[in-house]
Amino acid sequence: MRIATYNVEWFTSLFDRRGRILDDRENSARYGVTRAEQLGALGIVFSAVDADCFLIVEAPDNNTRHKTVPMLEAFAAKFGLRQRRALLGFENETQQEIALLYDPEVLQAWHDPAEGSAEAPRFDLSLQIDLDIDDRLDTVTFSKPPLEVQIEVLAGPGAGRRLRLIGVHIKSKAPHGANDPAAEVRLAIENRRKQLAQCLWLRRRVDAVLEAGESLIVLGDFNDGPGLDEYEELFGRSGLEIVLGTGGPPARQLHDPHARLPRGKATALPASARFFIPEPPPGAYLSAMLDYIALSPDLCAHAPKWRIWHPFDDPGCYRVAELREALLQASDHFPVTVDLAL
């Protein structure tokens, strides 16, 4: 079984107000790419990755005028994808939903949110936690509530096997809106606190799932990773490490090989995203490892093989010119997959 996570930049802008696909020569929300080019590129990428299910981060917006599920299923039909069924959990107000696109011949999937507790409420509710150690509780919410899905394998040797997936888009730590260095530091620390609180909330849910003996996959865009910014030293560890349970009992840790800094100065860091920074001219590209697929210990016994579909770092992607170009046009993130021998 192949499971993928893919952050598709402004997927929602490829549909009109009524949810119809915009396959034309107008500019997409991606810089320098038309809507037809981005759509075609996405068709190539989804077909090439050929996952049994995709966790789509920044899926098309769900509102009163148009719905995420029909739009994703229309996209799948347009390109003849076998992943032709879509699933949405709690909608949000950011125009960037978290959704699942999957092959109904291979698996069955349904939204299965936990009832929750005071320590780990349901993801569309709020968490009370002291963020700044001032003996007063702060209210934390997810702007993009994680998608909790139960899947059952329908075909192959793993038929009947159940897995729990939690798809995430964790808060960004970037100090957007800062207009001077002092404000930038203040906002960066404030956002880091909120990001860590979301990760702690998610970790508490992970503990409950592992305690229940379920097979678990936590995947998506964490906007974080070990060594990603200078504030990690201030707070002790990254939000990603909190979710993984790094340093805790091995039986309670989640695993993704890209979540640990490689040893040796000559070792290149993995990257799942590539952003163009226009200032100062002529601009430059910034690479970062933001997208992960973390497995519970029992799933790590099923010969997992992770892959980042990076157009320059993955030889298979680089050798196929059509796929290489499609990956660059489709999004500022690249798909991450894991293959499991269930």
Fold and architecture overview:
It is a single chain. With 342 residues, the chain is an alpha+beta fold. The chain has a single domain, classed as Endonuclease/exonuclease/phosphatase (Deoxyribonuclease I, Chain A, 4-Layer Sandwich), CATH 3.60.10.10. Helices cover 24% and strands 23% of the residues. It contains seven helices and 15 strands. It has helices at residues 35-49, 68-78, 181-211, 231-235, 239-244, 315-319, 321-330, and strands spanning 2-7, 53-59, 85-88, 97-102, 107-111, 126-129, 138-141, 147-153, 162-169, 216-221, 273-277, 284-288, 291-295, 305-308, 336-339. It has a six-stranded mixed sheet with strand order 3-4-2-1-15-14, with helices on one face. A five-stranded mixed sheet has the order 5-8-9-10-13, with helices on one face. Helix 1 (35-49) crosses helix 7. The protein is globular, with a radius of gyration of 20 Å.
